[in-house]
Amino acid sequence: MIDKKDVLHIAALARLTLSEEEVEGMTKQLDSILGYIDLLNSADTSGVEASAHMKYDHNPLREDATKESLPHDELLRNGPSVRKGHFAVPKVIG
Amino acid sequence: MEYEIVIGLEIHAQLLTKTKLFCGCASKFGDPPNTNGCPVCLGLPGALPVLSGLAVEMAVRMGLAVGCSINNKSVFARKNYFYPDLPKGYQISQYELPVCGPGFLVINVGGVEKKVGITRIHLEEDAGKLVHDQDVDSLFDVNRCGTPLIEIVSDPDMRSPQEALAYLAGIKQILEYLKICDCNMEEGSLRCDANISLRPKGQETYGTKTEIKNMNSFRFMEKALEYEARRQEEVLDSGGKIIQQTYLWDPSNNKALPMRSKEDAHDYRYFPEPDLLPLTVEQALIEKARASLPELPQVRKSRFINEFVLPDTTADVLTSDRHIADFFEATLNFFNDARQVANWIMGDILRIMNEQKITLDAITVTPARLGKLLSLISDGTVSAKAAKKVLDTMQSENKEPDTVIDQLGLRQVSDTGALEIALRKVLDEHPAEVERFRGGDKKLTGFFVGQVMKLTKGTGNPKEINTLLQKLFG
Ligand SMILES: [Zn+2]
Predict the structure, then answer these.
(1) What's the CA-to-centroid distance between B39 and ligand 1, angstroms?
(2) Of B17, B75, B82, which is closest to A64 when you measure between CB atoms?
(3) What's the ipTM?
(4) pTM of the model
């Protein structure tokens, strides 16, 4: 069972501010999603190797050859704030 | 109470690939800010990472060099946290299944050998760089973001700052021998974090640990660990409790400052990276990497001791740096007296490097030139003493030893005719000493040889002068 405290904790980690109604709604929705996962969990998977991916039989690796990066101005283009050739971000220390 | 210090280290080594871990941007220190970035390392929507094969190979080589098992299958994971040094909002790392499993490194402190366990080695991408200046905001540079790192995690096996230093030095040496990291601690291509705790002597369970970061030199690391051990001892002795926390070493004040504790900082919510398949390391790649391993420092040191009959300390200094050891062996091809070669490298080549604060790359005295100089000493062309001057000039003027010897007029005079003229002159000028010498005062031999040396401006061959002296009074 997921409760309101869990939802607030997850929201804080994701930097989300939720209204009282949203917390209610999310709690219900997440709970039903996890309920479905519980259903999946009830399937007998003993002898099946855990996997987070589809099975592919090759391993795409890249050669160590440099490619052109974005031009400096283009690179900074999506930055909300730019100063001295850098992305300017809220002050952080340490 | 008497305590035992328990230390474990996490070492991050930046791999010497040309490109970043998951994209083709250049992975290079010192480029102008924000010039090496693309949709992948900037975390732009829709961009997909593709793993560098060379980075995998380097991680495998390091694993093999420290006896790690190599996992045929490993999994990349997302480590989620919000910090403006990572545009994606997560770092791609490895969590439950790293590329290398347990291994070990043998260290030697004060003649006592000890095996330090290595828990794991995993691949991960580095974060970008934040510049904190005087302004209201911080400045972000993406160049370092996504550069390949291996993180080498030790077991909590070290029991003193000295053991921790020896372990770090050993890992650094191997990384250098493998040529997979340039190990520049100041530039941050080799970084070390420490976990440290105290426990009453004899107690099995570990005490609460703290983490120290930002120790970007061996000296700072020693100071930081000593500082933290002392601080914890004082807290425990006064009945207090250690709080699990991360500290930053502040070298200008010799203090460890607690990092602002970020709430939920350790709730990284790792999950398997959906954009990358599990990494398969084929047995063939492992065997290829194993075959390509160079002779490692500890093996090379033993060989130097056995093959060249060198003292332990000499072999230690020579093999501490792969380049020095290579230089030593190359010089032996030109002058086959290992002790002499070792003495000149330890005494004079290293002296020049220290005095001028240069690395071996900047030494213009090649192994061939050093070998030639040593053979010129052994055949009497130049005295060992004068040869030191010759070596300095060879270095500063980038010249062959023969040329420098003539240029400085240091060719040793072994021509007995010329030496006899000089000796007779000395004897004529010192009748009183000659009398005493005839009377049996053999201590004056040194005096006469010295005077002849002075007259020949140090180029006389002392052995020849001695022989002449015996002959004249014989
Ligand atoms: Zn990139």
Answers:
(1) 6
(2) B17
(3) 0.88
(4) 0.84
